[in-house]
User: Fold these one by one.
Assistant:
Number 1:
Amino acid sequence: MNAHTTSLAASLTHERYDVVVAGGGAAGLSAALVLGRSRRSTLVVDAGAPRNAPAAHMQGYLSRDGMSPGAFLEAGRREIAAYGVQWTAGEVVGAVPDGDGTVGFTVTLADGRTVRARRLVVTTGLVDELPPFDGLADRWGRDVLHCPYCHGWEVRDRAFGVVAHPVMGAHQALLVTQWSDDVVFFPHTYDSVTEEDRRRLAAAGVRTVEGEVAGLVVADDRLTGVRMADGRVIEREVLFVGTRVTPRDGLLTALGAATEDTPMGRFVSVDATGRTSVPGVWAAGNAIGAAEQVVNAASGGYRAGAIINMDLLNEDLDRKTATTV
Ligand SMILES: Cc1cc2nc3c(=O)[nH]c(=O)nc-3n(C[C@H](O)[C@H](O)[C@H](O)COP(=O)(O)OP(=O)(O)OC[C@H]3O[C@@H](n4cnc5c(N)ncnc54)[C@H](O)[C@@H]3O)c2cc1C
């Protein structure tokens, strides 16, 4: 164990926490905030790769509109610390049910630390797989975007390009016409674009450029165009792309959590409080839904935390009333 690991390990003061939260983004920190304020011993383990890290600003979170994603999470970590919640850098790699007739887990971190928990919250987010166009990853979150609600205002009225979504066809191209009148749609090689899409694109004044997209043209650190496989360059200042999303739900599926198929892929099913099909395990944020924005993720985490507090209280009362009968 190196010195860094030792100092982190020293911060885990409980052998058994009321709740371990895997993932310290908006969802996980919000769950931790309500749990800390409910006087629950809580540990947040965070691998430090929030989904919106490439973006300079976070938009659309009432009262925090325009804040940097890093500053937002830093403020959240300060707030949970004030209520005694512990936070550690790390990756949860497994959670095994105690198997003794009670609800509880032994949680293992990648660095070998283990800790026990009565309840588990999984808020590990998702992974965006970007289309494989040359130069695209470098522009992600800057002038290559996926979400007009996140960034549309900031790039309004510019020359937009939109590559078809691999699943949702022209949806994004139609949506972004609310932010610019100059929209070019690239069906690329996807077969997700329907005839109805094409009628609606024409009605919305969107120009369609057929052919395979190959890469981006960038000058002076700004997107200037989209390069087609046949060599044409279509001048554009902003490019919207769809991503294939993969929830980081390995902890949940390893525990046997039920999943459901959605238009965006397979996600773990939860009830309205974030409760999964596995007793004692909740989930929130992008780990269970691709459409969750920061404010929704925070809300889901908060709701899960509040319900877990009541669940723990009920469990303790059940035990006490059972022994006094
Ligand atoms: C480029 C971009 C810009 C965006 N801009 C906006 C915006 O302006 N406004 C907005 O509302 N939304 C925006 N979003 C969406 C936003 O990123 C998500 O809504 C938000 O991050 C979801 O929060 P979360 O807590 O579910 O997941 P995340 O924020 O992704 O946090 C999950 C955390 O869990 C950690 N983790 C993963 N696995 C483990 C593990 N096994 N153990 C421990 N920790 C783990 C991760 O490292 C990460 O720190 C943007 C997304 C992108 C891609």
Number 2:
Amino acid sequence: MKLYISPRAPNPRRVQMFIAEKGIAGIAEVVVEIGKDEHRSSDFRAKSPLAKVPVLELDDGRMLGETRAICSYLEGLYPEPNLMGETFEERAFIEMTDRRMEFYLFGSIANCIRHTHPGLAPLEQPQFADFGRSQGEKVREVARWLDEELSRLPFVAGERFTIADITAFCAIEFARGLMKFRPGHEGLANLQNWRDRIAERASARV
Ligand SMILES: N[C@@H](CCC(=O)N[C@@H](CS)C(=O)NCC(=O)O)C(=O)O
């Protein structure tokens, strides 16, 4: 299999971290530089029609896009360690949290950065700066809620590390770089402590 990624892009990082947590070896990484517009080439669009990374090329040549779909596929092929839930009930609750992390945390961070950062202007046209700034406020609302959750839970979906921690961590790291968002500087000590604990995992260094 081949995984198409772009350096510093947070969605490919989610898959890279998932692969590292599972200890999967042998998936070749192919770099598609978003910064050089390589993702919009006709060659890459043949693999990813909406010009997005990551994409997983399967051994039979099929292309699987969308981060969570790629993770579901890899969870099926490599069930251990389990990151998406053992039973239907656990799967549903982990999925609920993962979707909250993806839509309300990651999504608002991405919108804020894409609409306010000059470096993202080539990817996001037109940019709506007011919308971007309002999304930054939503990020802080969600972060305050998550900080409370983490005052009683060790991981975002409960008692153990799951895909939802990967989604949240990659989002917070993206915000750290391009929004200069540091939970600890905003009084969110639980979120900061969780982030620092996740950052110590070997998978966080991919
Ligand atoms: N929903 C997709 C989002 C993928 C996505 O937006 N990837 C970004 C990189 S993190 C991208 O390819 N951006 C290029 C662009 O928007 O032109 C997923 O979950 O994989």
